[in-house]
Amino acid sequence: MTSYRTCPLCEATCGLAIDLDGTEVARIRGDADDVFSHGFLCPKGVSLKPLHEDPDRLRAPLVDGREASWDEAFAVVDERLRAVIEAGGRDAVAVYVGNPSAHSLSNLVYGRALLKALGTKNVYTASTVDQMPKQVAAGYMFGGGLSVPVPDVDHTDYLLVLGANPLASNGSLMTAPDMRGRLKALRRRGGRVVVVDPRRSRTAEESDEHLFIQPGTDALFLFALVHVLDAEGRVTPVDHLNGVEDVLALAQDFAPGPVAEVTGIPASTIERVARELAGAPRAAVYGRIGTCTQEFGTLASWLVDVLNALTGNLDREGGAMFARAAAGASNTMGPAGRGRGLTTGRWHSRVRVAPEVLGELPVACLAEEIETPGEGQVRALITVAGNPVLSTPDGARLDRALEGLDFMLSLDIYVNETTRHADVVLPAPSPLARSHYDLALYQLAIRNVANYSPPMIDGEAAGEPPDEWRTLLRLAGSAGGAGPNVDVDALDAMVAGEAARRAGLDPQEAMAAVAPRVGPERILDILLRAGPYGSGFGARKGEEAGSLSLADLEAAPHGLDLGPLQPRLPEVLRTPSGMVELAPPAIVADVPRLRGALERSPNGDLVLIGRRQLRSNNSWMHNLDMLVRGPARCTLHIHPDDAARLGLADGEDATVRSTAGEVVAPVEVTDAIMPGVVSIPHGWGHDVPGTRLSVAREHAGVNCNLLTGTAEVEPLSGNAILNGVPVEVSPVESLVASR
Ligand SMILES: Nc1nc2c(c(=O)[nH]1)N[C@H]1C(S)=C(S)[C@@H](COP(=O)(O)OP(=O)(O)OC[C@H]3O[C@@H](n4cnc5c(=O)[nH]c(N)nc54)[C@H](O)[C@@H]3O)O[C@H]1N2
Ligand SMILES: Nc1nc2c(c(=O)[nH]1)N[C@H]1C(S)=C(S)[C@@H](COP(=O)(O)OP(=O)(O)OC[C@H]3O[C@@H](n4cnc5c(=O)[nH]c(N)nc54)[C@H](O)[C@@H]3O)O[C@H]1N2
Ligand code: SF4
Ligand SMILES: [Mo]
């Protein structure tokens, strides 16, 4: 029997065709009939089989390291969590939500219920080691943290890519399966792809032009492009913009000459790229991790869309466009065209008084909140699908801090570097035993699509843990003081009612219309019907009225294609002015800091950046042999000139030191990285005691986040600075001594 389902592992949302032989997975292929991915898949998609079968993947709760029944585990959680709350108040419990939650309908919807029940301001997520700067920029400019324009890669003639490597990552803040095929098609139709990256990445290799850039200087480069456009009279702004003159005035200070000195990109190249961008019939600028997890993350993220707007490419075919997602998008709800915009700093972290952003605090503050005594000190932590010891800065400090907690609970499928500290671990079912709908990622898709996958394996019969939404609700019960055995179904109905209310519906009516559905399916059906392709439960009339519901998706196992992206300005906006804010005051106020960077001259020191690898998924799929076999991949990339200067040879170990820590990694000499820059991928370092990762342990690698620090965060978003970290590299001392 063949089942069709969307791969939940990354943002590309590929369709998979999975052959089952009884309850065994026989084979996984790309679904050739998928309306979006047309058969494309990457090696990780296939690895859902070994992930499903992995004996190290948890099937039962662990209490103090021993297997326990669910009732036992919830009783322990209830008792210990209540004790912490009673002693230290609600803020004494912190939550860290990791990346896989963004790919899970259950976790997105019911995680919110848990947070609400906890009522803590200590909410941390992987967003502040990732895309928060982009969300802040989008929030200020367009009024929604997920109103992020995506490049219309299928129709553009010119794509300027900064700090992204979609050929390895398969795309991010840009849901687009088979980016390789899409970029090839772009070039085949005469278009041009330019990649700006301190490394010649796979994407750079397959582009028309690659520009090396000094890490952390993208905002300078982008400002210089604006400067040239203005100086040469090439500014052709789109409609609905506030603040064009302000931005052009700010760009005055960023002439190509001085910017060239700091970025390493020649002034003539900056001028040419500006002309190409302005001259292309349709063009898009796109930036990702490299432009976010750095010193000027929000400025760079903002300037990406400033350029799209000033070249006439924002919100038009072949430019940077807004998806119109079928379900759950804030920019399809409430009054169109106007809203409250973004407010940050509604509360602050206790120790360094960092402002709240989009409901959370910077994860770089988590360790100090645990360590620092006083009222409001964090004494318990709940991690949900996260591995912050490997994925957040100064992992060693966080690791120590976790050891000192009074209570730690992890919702996770593995005992890894983080969850080994947990008193209680509650597992989730295999991806094949649960339903899937990419509520978040379809809001960032380069084509409007919707695809729902029902569970393909009976989890209960297969001995899989219960659905994660049930676990989250039971925890919400405990957190809210209702004890360990709350009526999950009643709570579920409340969550569904709340979702309906937020979508502007009468809860009773909405719930009746989708009965007898329960759980995530009930909520999804409500959101689809309330969404832009639904009937609005009868509220929408005439041409506007669609009829989309979950039943339509159930009848379409290869997905529903809702068409190419369409212009959405000004209706997509939720700013108070009803205009795109090109010069938001908060962002403008950060420009002097960037101006300061113009004075810097490269001083010959090395800086560290990261990189992603195709057969990897942050920290957590290294326990699958098919993804880790072969030569070690957690290597230090260094340019031949730097290697020669420092006496480092390919294959030898090097010591890498920063103000935060030190690691020893094997050297890979390559001219794919620019002089002065070294790179180590993140998510490795699996050789610590107490984990249950028998395969990953054999391919341990090192934790590059022992080198990244927590002292500085990007000021507007609170995002960690993971790229452009000053380091010293030297041959391992014992080797030097023995020579
Ligand atoms: N230096 C450096 N650091 C980085 C980055 C970088 O580029 N450089 N990238 C950053 C980015 S972009 C991200 S998103 C973060 C990721 O940071 P995290 O989200 O903290 O880390 P992951 O490795 O994704 O960990 C996912 C965890 O979820 C568990 N898991 C998997 N599936 C499920 C499930 O269905 N339910 C539950 N409950 N658990 C599950 C896994 O076992 C694992 O423990 O790392 C960041 N860290
Ligand atoms: N195979 C695989 N796919 C993944 C993941 C994974 O771990 N493995 N993780 C997923 C996640 S959580 C995310 S967020 C996405 C991320 O998706 P991408 O952003 O595409 O991720 P990377 O491949 O890390 O690409 C970032 C690039 O930025 C470059 N860079 C570093 N510093 C700078 C800088 O200062 N300026 C510029 N211009 N470039 C810089 C790096 O050399 C690298 O090539 O990938 C997702 N997909
Ligand atoms: S590209 Fe992403 S969504 Fe597609 S198969 Fe690979 S991991 Fe899954
Ligand atoms: Mo990420």
Structural account:
The protein has 28 helices and 28 strands. It is of the alpha/beta class. The chain folds into four domains: 1-53, ADC-like domains (N-terminal domain of TfIIb); 62-130 and 344-426, Rossmann fold (3-Layer(aba) Sandwich); 150-314 and 317-327, Dimethylsulfoxide Reductase, domain 2 (3-Layer(aba) Sandwich), CATH 3.40.228; 601-738, Barwin-like endoglucanases (Beta Barrel), CATH 2.40.40.20. It has a seven-stranded mixed sheet with strand order 5-4-17-16-15-6-7, with helices on one face. A six-stranded mixed β-barrel has the order 23-27-24-26-25-28. The longest helix is centred in the N-terminal third of the chain and has 19 residues, at 70-88. The N and C termini lie far apart (62 Å). The structure holds ligand MGD (2 copies), iron/sulfur cluster and molybdenum atom. Iron/sulfur cluster (SF4) binds next to helix 1.
Set out the fold topology.
Layout: E1 2-6, E2 15-21, E3 24-30, H1 43-46, H2 48-53, E4 62-63, E5 66-67, H3 70-88, E6 93-97, H4 105-118, E7 123-125, H5 132-142, E8 150-151, E9 158-162, H6 166-169, H7 179-188, E10 192-196, H8 202-205, E11 209-211, H9 218-231, E12 241-242, H10 244-251, H11 256-263, H12 267-279, E13 283-287, H13 289-292, H14 297-310, E14 320-321, H15 366-371, E15 380-384, H16 388-391, H17 395-403, E16 407-411, E17 424-426, E18 436-437, E19 447-450, E20 452-453, H18 468-479, H19 488-502, H20 507-514, H21 519-530, H22 550-554, E21 560-564, E22 580-581, H23 585-588, H24 591-597, E23 606-609, H25 625-628, E24 636-638, H26 640-646, E25 653-657, E26 662-669, E27 677-679, H27 694-698, E28 725-731, H28 733-738
Parallel strand pairs: 6-7, 6-15, 9-10, 9-13, 10-11, 12-22, 15-16, 16-17, 23-27, 24-26
Antiparallel strand pairs: 1-2, 2-3, 4-5, 4-17, 8-14, 18-20, 19-21, 23-28, 24-27, 25-26, 25-28
Helix pairs in contact: 3-18, 4-18, 4-21, 5-14, 9-10, 9-11, 9-12, 9-14, 11-12, 19-20, 19-21
The protein binds ligand MGD (2 copies), iron/sulfur cluster (SF4) and molybdenum atom.
